[in-house]
Amino acid sequence: MRGLVSMRSLARMRSLAARLTVCGLAVCGLAVCGLAVCASALCALPLTAQTATTTAAQTSAAQTATTTAAAVARRVDEHYNHLHTLQAQFREQYSGMGMEREESGTLLLERPGRMRWNYSEPAGKYFLLDGHYAYFYAVGNEQVTRMRASQLDDLRSPLRFLLGHTRIAAELDGLKMTQAGAEFVLSGVPHGAARRIGSVELTVTADGRITVMVIRELDGSVTRFALSGEQDNPKLAPETFHFTAPAGIPVSDGLPPA
């Protein structure tokens, strides 16, 4: 009887082992004190987790190695160099010379080197670069200020290069990079502007979009442009970058105010 029970028990254990094997588990052996089952999936899990961790670490190390100032600058170049037009909302903040100012509006860009800043705060103010001349006007001014684009020394002007043939590494001397969360900050001194500007900082997304530009002047003034709602290649009206003087307002050559 005991032999029969033992045989029946052994049969049940073999049946159980077969079912476990079908479920993806390997039976490592039967011990005298009972059934010892080693599940192959469970045995492999630590190795799989270890492999995944190693792969993630290798990927992270590779990303760190390739995320240099030059590499991030190239992402910016690649993003903007394929665009023909660009539209974005901007917020401009200025601090210096004993005053603070905050303004906002819409920025429009068109290749090559055309730019228009339409201010909603304060309303009626605009800055236009038609590729040859820059024009500045604000409601209440007695004249429109004009100057040649080649002579322009305005803090808004660096952004016009976004729709030229962008080469951030060539525009900023001493290019450096730091990481700010998921974004990167490129910094340097605009080529040929070292006598006025201490540094320009560009906050850049992983896909090369500029979200913030901070300009630090040697006199301690700081201007910050924050860009949002960027639209790539929007259709812009033909007259967007054509200057028309307001009725009764003369045009005078000179340097536009800040």
**Main structural class:** alpha+beta
Strand order in space, largest sheet:
9-10-11-12-13-3-4-5-6-7-8-14
Q: Separation of termini?
A: 105 Å
User: Which word captures the global form?
Assistant: globular
Instruction: Report the uncertain regions.
Output: 1-45, 57-66
CATH topology of the largest domain: outer membrane lipoprotein receptor (LolB), chain A
Structural domains: how many: 2
- Under CATH at level 1, the class of the largest domain stands as Mainly Beta
One letter per element, helices H and strands E, the order comes to HEEHHEEEEEEHEEEEEE
* Helicity level: 25-40%
Strand coverage percent:
35-45%
List keywords for this structure.
4 helices; 2 domains; 258 residues; alpha+beta; disordered N terminus; outer membrane lipoprotein receptor (LolB), chain A; 41% strand; globular
